[in-house]
Design brief:
The complex is a heterodimer. Chain A contains 8 helices and 10 strands. By secondary structure, chain A is of the alpha/beta class. Chain A has a domain of 179 residues: 3-Layer(aba) Sandwich (Rossmann fold). Chain B has one domain. In chain B, helix 3 packs across helix 10. Classes of the chains: A alpha/beta, B mainly alpha.
Chain lengths: 257, 267
Amino acid sequence: MNTAILSGRELNYQYNRSQRQPEGGKAALANLSFDLFPGQFLALLGPNGAGKSTLFALLTQLLRLQQGDILVDGTSIRQARSAALKSMGVVFQQSTLDPDLTVIQNLNYYAALHGMSSREARARSLVELERLQLGDAAGKKIRHLNGGHQRRVEIARALLHRPRLLLLDEATAGLDLETRANINRHVRDLCQQQGIAVLWATHLIDEVEAADQVMILHRGNKLAQNRCEELLLEHHCDRLIDLFGRLTGTQTGELTT
Amino acid sequence: MNLATASYCFLGIFKRELHRFLQQRARFASALVRPLLWLLVFAAGFRAALGIAIIPPYETYITYEVYITPGLVGIILLFNSMQSSLSMVYDREMGSMKVLLTSPMPRSYLLLCKILSTSLVSLLQVYTFLLIAALFDIVMPASGYFWLLPAVLLASLMLCSLGLLLSILIKQLENFAGVMNFVVFPMFFLSSALYPLWRMRESSEFIYLVCLYNPFTHAVELIRFALYASLNLPALGVTAAVTAVLLFAAISAYQPRNRPQRGKPPS
């Protein structure tokens, strides 16, 4: 059995928590535990407000851990911040590209922040841009690219330092069906061919395939985790959207296809 | 982090600052027009009204234009540091700040690189301003242009640290006008940039004391003495100490453990 590359251990997080009233805040995550193994594609499924972005902010250490722990390669991120961040490539829900710089300038900047020389950065950028069919766009400013291309640039950038773990938070939000499918396919290929572990947060049901590991998150609580087809069998449901409605007791409209 | 990765990281941050600066030509022009207007219009107009006694580091009577030149170098640094602060707030609103904060490099080092890069970009503007001033016969001793470099760097580090700290406190770009009214203008006008402190004392002891305790006064004095190849030790001490305090406060404020756990989830 492989060791998990990423593990969450009883993660709790509250917003508006004060020192006087540590329990008085709004719970964004409650007792969340999970494991992600090399080469695994884990779909984190939940509507807006489920706690997906909070989890990403904790994983990337934009927010401080309050309770619980996150382990990357078996080591707590509290002890090994730098090593943990080196292992991760991240695509956030909101674009993090600098619109005033060109594609290659954005990639070079990111590579420098990961301690790569400009020669190595250029070589790696060209490889990743070609892989995502963005070779012609290298000299274009980000603000002149469409949404789909910008997302692909973000994925190319997240892979520059050869991470073993790719975190994507609603990476296809706002894109058309074809572009979404292409990006989804590309990430799955990375998973299968390079053994990169992927945490794919989404509220779009059709991005989840039957063989995927699925973790269903609702209002900060993990409601279920298993392979999608096994979850459906367990709960006697034909469709994931019905399963979600049954588990949460809510309108399934919170998720979309 | 080793020396090679640290230097690649610094170069990357510096190149980004430079790219952005070179792309915003209007920013470069306005950064020069502002002090040049003060120098060529305001100072020329007030030359007759404002007499300057012989005070160190000057050994002869000087024109008012010569007196305010170090203060105008200071205002270039002050506005540039606030511009950098504004761009940090913009980066946070646009999301690109996350790229910096999720780098595996130590966060304190990243922030240090950021303010050092801004300071180096400020140097370009300072020397361009002095070159234009020289064309109008406002010339300093040749060695002064050399000794100016470390003085400007230190003064800029102090002001950029202040800008970094302010960028944490400013929640939205719209609030930035308040910084101009409550930080930039008071710092500039309540300093020795435009008038010597003894003149301030003649009009009000209270205003004199405010000017005396204003760190910008000491940054300007450090620059003024450096331009005449001399060292103002008290000014150096105050500027260095305030830089250390502001830098420490700004770096602490950017650590996740010290950031308020309030507000909406990050998007």
